[in-house]
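Entry for the shared binder. Reason: the reviewer on the internal report wants the predicted structure included alongside the sequence.
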Amino acid sequence: MNDIVIAGAGQAGARAAEALRARGFTGSITMIGEEPHPPYERPQLSKSLLQSSDAPVAYIKQAADWTKTLDIRIETGAAAIECDADRRIVSTADGRNFRFDGLLLATGTRPRRLSALEDAQIEVQYLRSVEDALRFRRHIQAKSRIAIVGGGVIGLEAACAAARSGCHVTVIENEERLLARAFPPLVSSLVADRHRGHGVTFVFGATVTGSTSRSVDLSNGAEIAADLVLVGVGVTPSAELAVRLGLPAAEGIAVDACGRTAAPDIFCAGDAALQWSRCHGRAIRVETWANAQNQAISVAANMIGETVEYNDPPWFWTDQYDQNIQVTGDMRDAEHVARGDPNGDRFSIIAMRGAELVGALSVNAAKDMAMLRRVIAANARPRRADLEAPGYDLRSALKSH
């Protein structure tokens, strides 16, 4: 390969570009990004940018470092919308063409829209860009009444920042508890209680059906007063380019362990990639900071002729006030084993299917999680009795594997 084009200038695209240079690739690299900014990591949008009134945007590198130091061309504000696989040309919305020998689809995702709030009189926000985060931060500073639709990680982190600043916050969740797909019920309750202690109100088992200029209407008949609605009900893959290439992409852009798609010399990395997860026993999209970085680095190596399979268990973290919660693998449809006191401030819960460790969650137990991630990645199989023993050193599971 002499010319590599990366469609997408977010975290996955940026880390892949860095890795290509670090592994000695000397050909041309062009990153095409829809946003007007140099690449940045998205976790700050619901974390640091909301937690401080003057926190600056942290870019992975400044534009000059990409172009001058790494000799990587960045085209910002330029969405890649067409691709001719035979001629090997990517085209942008403004009519420019970029030739490639290898193409990396790092197009990410976009927020799932809430149809009941389309064309609403009340202000409605989604949290997906720097501009979104800064606009929401201004509402936090104004101590607005905020209704958050969706009790997932993004919505809860936004609720933390708003509640700490004195906003009146209501979280509307259509499930009967928070983060039901990732948290055991005990941890869902723990997080909800911590939020309630900071004045956050929850409405469970309801959806938004409409709005006025100063409120939202719910399916249970309630009316929630608000100045702003923040919607966090998931994302969908940005896969238009893949569809134009004839790749199936309804649930994500399918890749093998090396990041290859079904089209020759076309790869995919990051949130849009549909990749196999041993922990889940199926192909999933992994919408995490760690996957956007590490899978992209692995895929970059494969683009230039190495063979590096990526199979890290999914992992993410969230800070809920003074609770640091980390999750790896899959916590659903499994037997849960407690390590430490689940009624205390520091513990872990390990998910097992038979003798196989398929997931873990830690609350204020980062050291445990660091080892559990390694144990699960190695497919080690310590005994349940050992895992429950307070003095058991998790490193022993790796030594015996």
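Summary line for the report: The longest helix spans residues 289-303.
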